[in-house]
Structure formats: C-alpha cells, structure tokens
Amino acid sequence: MVEEQPRKLSFEMDLNDVVGPGDDVDPLLHLEKDLESRAGREPLSHLIAYWALGLLNNAPFVILNASAKDLLPEAVGGFYLANSIPSLCVRLSAPYWFDLVTYRARMIAASLLMGTSFILLRTFSDSKGLLLCCVALMSVQSGLGETTLLSLSSRYESNKTLTAWSSGTGIAGVFGYVYVIVLRDVFKWTTEERLGWSSLLAFIFIFAFYNIEPVVDSADSTDSSSTQGKSVVPMKTNLSWKGRLQLTAKLWPWTIPLLVVYWAEYAMQSGIWVVVEIDGYSSDDFYLYSNLCYQVGVFFSRSSGMVWQPDTKVLWLMPAVQTAVLVFFIVDINTQIWYDRSLFGLAIFVGLLGGWVYVNGFRLIIEGEKDDRLKELSTASAAVFSDLGCNLGEATGLLLQKLLNK
Question: From the centroid of its chain, how far is CA 136?
Fold first, then answer.
C-alpha cells in the first residue's frame, strides 16, 4: 500500500491576499506551519476520545436491542426495524446536507436525542406505539452520530482515527450486552430503571467530542473556535444532486460487501438466535449470550485496522462466507446436527466477519478517494449501505422468526 503524502492546507490564497510588497511574511508563514502541524494530528488522548465516541454512539443501539425481548417479546424483528429505519433515513439524506452544518451542531443534536430518548423510553415503556416512537428517535441519534464521526475521521492523516472509532463501535456491543446482563441479573434492575439511568451516557458522549484534536483548513482557519476542535466546518463541494448520486454509485466495490455482510448477520440475530434453545439455555438466554459473543467478535475485528488490511477481493469473500453461515443456521435449527454450546463460537465468527468488512470497507473508501473534498462525502454516502443491510436483515429476520416459530 502506497503511503499518501501529507495533505497541504489551502492557505496560499489567503497569504497572497493579505501580504503586500515589502511586508514581513514570517509571522504568517509561522501561522501556516502551526496550523498544518495541528491539523489532523492524532495523539493518544485524541484516539482515546474517538474510541469513546464510537463506544458511546453505538451503545444505546445495542442496549435497546439487548432489551428487545423484555420490551416487545412478540416482535423482536419489528423492534429492530424501529431501531434501524430512521437511522437509514438520516444516512440516505446525509450526502445532501451534511456539508452545510457544522460538526458541533450535529453532535449537540445527537447528544440531546440520546438523553431524551432514554428518558422517554423509561416513561412510555408500557405503550407499544409510543415505545416504538422512542426507539425510532434513538435510531435517528445513532445514524446522525455515526455518519458525522465517520466523515470527520477521514480528515485525519492516518488510519489510526478510523481504527479507534471502529474499535469503539466494536466494544459498544460487548459493553451494551454486559451492561444489560449485569444490571438485570446481578443488580436486579428493571428494564425501566436500566433505560432511565442510561440517559447519563449522553453527557459523556458530548464531553468526549470536545476532547478530540482539531482539524483545521482554509474553510475555518479564521474562526478562533475552530482551533479548539469545536466547530470545524465540513469541506464544501459544488456537486449537484446528480453528482452526489454518481459519487455514491461509484463506491459499489466496497458498499455491496457492507450491505450483504450486515444483511446476513442481522437476519441471524433478529430471526434465528431468538428461537434457538440448547441444553442449559432458554431461547431468551441464547439470544442474549449469542449476541454477546457476536459483539466480542466485532470488537476484535474492528480493532484490527492497523494490523490486517485486506484488499477488495478479500473484502468480497467475507460476505459470501457470512451468507453461508446464515444458511447453515437455518438448516441447523431444523435438523439440530450441531446444536450445543459451541454455537456460541460460531456467533463470534459472525462478529469477526462483520467487523472486518466494516473497518476495511471504510478504509478502502477513504484511500480510494484522492480528492480531499470528497472523502467526507464518500464516507457519509457509504454509511447508508451498512444501515440498509441492517434493515433488510431485520426484515428477513422478522420473516424467519415467524416461520421458525410455527
């Protein structure tokens, strides 16, 4: 893999505009060098903050899915859809307005949605209709936060920020299921109590955002607040709607694997693992622990972005294997040829495949786009396909759950 040269800030036009003949340009040149040295740097504190953002953005989604059988046991697949479709709508629209709104504004909105949704979920957990509306609100938060932070990660020079984000989203799954299991089984908290106290995660979420490193370019270098990393402005593009659609379409070598791998794994989670019963584990227990094992696999694979970087051919192989595992589970639940605790190991493998496709799919998209102005737009556009895969998988899971329960 050829290492890209550091990006040069578009600062020369500003210098020519403000420096006249005979002026001493050294102070401005020092300012340019200072901005360049700050832009996109990735110290450990920044990587930890970005890792925390990945954890906290995805944790509410996992906490809700882990609580699905408690909140809506008769239609887990439908619950999953309510937790995903609004996120998909945000991602579908993102390429057409994200470059008009600052990252700070989007992150404040995501934090408010997170805290409010948890409080409303506790309040309206007894009403099926209102419950699903609250779940949908949380889904908006998930899509807004993930698409925003994925886009921002493309502004940094190396793969470290993307890997930190991916690792955080991976551990979010483990955190979410352990969080529910411990509070339910050890502390004996009710579902409503768990949801109410989870609103505190929103405060930690916005705090982490205010502790990432700044990304400075000519669009916002005159804004004193931008050098504190608080209101960095997205790179503007002049693409028409048609041009943005064409940009999304050209990403197919990486977005199709994202879509397929998510479709297969969410079909398993929401449609098959909810009805499996093995010795020592009821269907409720198997659902919870298989999803926990899956999230362990996701964490390790999403954390491997700096260790293993497969090419596009390998990226396409992994969704094919994931689909084969889905077919195996459908056959196995009817034949029970392999029906013991070792199925948890297969759930870990499902998570590994999904995480590898995620982190490497977005890495290849960022590396493949040479125009810095389009990197953010490309990642926002590609994020649609992971959510689309989730929604298709959950719709498939809803059908599978009905068929397998007959």
Answer: 16
Per-residue pLDDT of the chain (406 residues; tens, 9 = 90+): 444 444 433 333 333 433 344 444 444 444 344 444 444 568 999 999 999 999 999 999 989 988 888 888 877 778 888 988 899 899 999 888 888 899 999 999 999 999 999 999 999 888 888 999 999 999 999 999 999 999 999 888 778 999 999 999 999 988 988 898 899 889 999 999 999 999 999 999 999 999 998 875 433 434 434 434 444 667 667 778 888 888 889 999 999 999 999 999 999 988 899 888 888 888 888 988 898 899 899 999 999 999 999 999 999 999 999 999 999 999 998 888 988 999 999 999 999 999 999 999 999 999 988 777 788 889 988 989 988 998 899 889 888 988 887 6
Sign (positive/negative) of CA torsion 154, 262, 179, 300? negative
Residue type, 370: K
Q: What is the pTM of this model?
A: 0.77
For the chain, the distance separating the N- and C-terminal CA atoms, rounded to the nearest angstrom, is 52
Protein fold of 41-214+224-404: Growth Hormone; Chain: A; (1.20.1250)
Residue 80: φ, ψ to 5°: -60, -40
Q: Rounded CA gap, 180 and 364, in Å?
A: 35
246, burial (CB in 10 Å: exposed 0-12, middle 13-18, buried 19+): exposed
Q: Is 223 helix (H, G, I), strand (E, B) or coil?
A: coil
Q: In whole angstroms, give the CA distance from residue 406 to residue 69.
A: 18
CA distance linking residue 205 with residue 276, whole number of Å: 35
Every domain of the chain and the residues it spans: 41-214+224-404
Q: Could you write out the three-class secondary structure of 350-389?
A: HHHHHHHHHHHHHHHHHHHCCCHHHHHHHHHHHHHHHHHH
